[in-house]
Design the sequence.
């Protein structure tokens, strides 16, 4: 997030798209409700009728994968009415003219044809966002998990800059991160192209700096992303995979393809707190500890690094992840003799400039928001305050592109996937939790009442879903949450896995798979 | 009877709510929201309220395991680490460091993620390190 969670409640307008906030980030949704109570306008654009849609001043259900058209359409209307923040654009941004030319053709009529959004709704969205300042945009994987994920994010940034909403309190571009420490994993260099704090591995000075810090010559070539790794396994180029705290068997797209890839490995090492579907395929399983048994830090979606404190001793014969990695490293011939997570933290802050001013003592109970470069720095509530990190904010000319797969005669329905309120990701943590399991015990597919009637399917009856990748049987949930022609499957449930169906086509830059759109066939199970 | 309250952070979504773990005689018995926390101000969602339940689940892994004769069996840490290292070294010897991939995690701590990528880069010698941010 460019801005902070608490700031949301003082926004004059909140635009939520591709985030089912009240189900997946309830304590962020709480700030949205507070903002509403203070008089904020709320715009919700989601292919489903989510709970927040009911509270919105305008809510639309855009067609899956039509986000660039929708956003360009909003910006077309804003420019036509002269609602843009002209002096902000002139002082703080560049390449505005190229962008302006690109949105010229996205008339409300054209957008209605692509996205299925009524013209007066689109006009209202544009007017509310542009004329209530500061306005905040919240989004999640509904924007990013597309073959055009990068284009979608660029379009969101265009919209925010067009109305002068970046670098101001209670405004901003605010991706809501799905996992507790996905921000930290990125910050710490858990990526194939960068060292900690996003320092590129291809820049020689960075490579030298880390080589010196770690006492070892380091590779300068960008490595494989997770998407590349699967392909390299199939091609026989990747022979060993060490998986820490992940369950790709359920979280990766096109499960059949992934199983084939994992079976080609000579060595699969899996480190987890549960015997996951991925661990079942492993040659070695390392038993790690849970959140309550460890010290360390997590960094949340608003860049706040916070201290996690050990409450109980590790159960039975389990070890902290840092102890396992240290043992493995030492046995490989590279000594790691850390005594505590604090010692590791003190090392990482010396090579991670945005965390440079942090210590366990300074973090306290509230944590610190990066960038926090030195010991006197109070942390950063929102980014790009007086100028953008890169200097000038860069507008991008973005054209709408179709998703990789669209419904046809054979697979006539749209399918999208996501989370539901009681469960979390691949379900390994929530499905063993008695209270959460009681809320929802099985997977399901949401289907509109009209479609259910056409197919002769009643609520709770089992249906068969099939795509070009695979098929699964699953109970139907007849619901107005989905519009006619659209189906939704949560991906938490191993016995009816959403990702046996999804398309592994991915964004060319971000390598993110298109989980949010594919074509599917639905039949009543025999 | 020994009762402790330990402040920590919820490990479900990316919101990062402050929680209080309640520990009775060394057993984790409940989770409460932290009143003064800047993110959640004394509230939690249904997952947060039940955070302790996955920790105390009897389905937790309790020991390292090694595959022997096609089946995973409980092993000692020394065996598990030693066997892994022998196999890894042989693979690196035969196919080079880029034949190894490492997946860091959005679930473990910053300190542990730092070590995972350090392990991939400095110990294995590859930048083949990624995690599930995209998934």
Sequence:
């Amino acid at each position: 997030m460019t801005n902070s969670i608490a700031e949301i409640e003082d926004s004059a307008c909140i635009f939520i798209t591709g985030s089912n906030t009240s189900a997946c980030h309830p304590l962020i949704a709480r700030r949205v409700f507070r903002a509403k109570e203070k008089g904020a306008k709320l715009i919700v654009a989601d292919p489903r009728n989510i709970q927040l849609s009911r509270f919105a001043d305008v809510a639309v259900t855009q067609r899956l994968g039509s986000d660039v058209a929708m956003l360009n359409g909003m910006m077309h209307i804003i420019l036509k009415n002269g609602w843009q923040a002209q002096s902000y654009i002139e002082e703080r941004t560049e390449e505005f003219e190229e962008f302006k030319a690109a949105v010229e053709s996205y008339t409300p009529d054209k957008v209605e044809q692509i996205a299925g959004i009524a013209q007066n709704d689109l006009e209202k969205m544009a007017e509310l966002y542009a004329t209530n300042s500061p306005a905040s945009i919240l989004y999640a994987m509904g924007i990013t998990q597309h073959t055009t994920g990068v284009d979608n994010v660029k379009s969101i940034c265009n919209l925010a800059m067009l109305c002068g909403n970046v670098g101001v309190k209670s405004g901003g571009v605010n991706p809501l991160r799905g996992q507790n420490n996905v921000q930290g994993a990125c910050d710490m260099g858990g990526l194939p192209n960068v060292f900690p704090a996003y320092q590129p591995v291809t820049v020689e000075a960075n490579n030298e700096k880390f080589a010196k810090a770690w006492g070892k010559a380091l590779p300068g070539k960008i490595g494989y992303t997770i998407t590349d790794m699967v392909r390299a396994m199939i091609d026989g180029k990747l022979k060993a995979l060490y998986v820490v705290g992940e369950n790709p068997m359920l979280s990766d797209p096109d499960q059949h393809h992934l199983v084939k890839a994992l079976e080609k490995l000579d060595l699969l090492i899996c480190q987890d707190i549960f015997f996951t579907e991925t661990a079942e395929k492993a040659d070695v399983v390392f038993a790690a500890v849970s959140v309550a048994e460890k010290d360390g830090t997590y960094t949340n979606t608003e860049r706040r690094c916070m201290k996690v404190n050990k409450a109980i001793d590790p159960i039975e014969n389990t070890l902290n992840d840092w102890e396992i990695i240290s043992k493995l490293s030492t046995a490989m011939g590279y000594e790691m003799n850390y005594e505590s997570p604090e010692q590791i933290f003190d090392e990482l802050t010396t090579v991670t400039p945005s965390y440079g001013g942090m210590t366990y003592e300074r973090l306290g109970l509230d944590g610190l928001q990066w960038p926090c470069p030195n010991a006197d720095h109070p942390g950063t509530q929102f980014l790009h305050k007086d100028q953008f990190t890169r200097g000038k904010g860069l507008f991008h000319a973005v054209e709408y592109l179709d998703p990789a797969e669209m419904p046809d005669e054979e697979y006539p329905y749209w399918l999208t996937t996501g989370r539901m309120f009681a469960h979390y990701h691949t379900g390994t943590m929530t499905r063993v939790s008695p209270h959460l399991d009681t809320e929802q015990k099985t997977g399901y597919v949401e289907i509109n009442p009209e479609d259910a009637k056409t197919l002769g399917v009643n609520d709770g009856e089992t249906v068969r879903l099939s795509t070009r990748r695979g098929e699964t049987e699953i109970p139907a949930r007849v619901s107005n949450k989905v519009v006619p022609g659209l189906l939704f499957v949560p991906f938490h449930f191993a016995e009816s896995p959403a990702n046996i169906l999804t398309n592994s086509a991915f964004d060319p830059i971000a390598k993110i798979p298109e989980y949010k759109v594919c074509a599917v066939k639905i039949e009543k199970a025999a | 009877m020994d009762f402790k309250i330990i402040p920590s952070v919820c490990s479900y979504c990316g919101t990062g709510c402050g929680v209080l773990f309640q520990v009775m005689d060394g057993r984790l018995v409940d989770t409460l929201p932290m009143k003064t926390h800047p993110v959640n101000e004394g509230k939690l969602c249904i997952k947060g309220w039940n955070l302790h339940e996955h920790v105390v689940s009897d389905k937790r892994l309790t020991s390292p395991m090694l595959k022997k004769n096609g089946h995973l069996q409980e092993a000692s840490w020394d065996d598990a680490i030693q066997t892994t290292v022998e196999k890894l070294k042989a693979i690196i010897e035969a196919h080079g460091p880029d034949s190894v991939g490492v997946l860091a995690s959005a679930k473990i701590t910053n300190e542990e993620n730092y070590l995972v990528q350090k392990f991939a880069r400095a110990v294995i010698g590859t930048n083949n390190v990624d995690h599930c941010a995209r998934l």
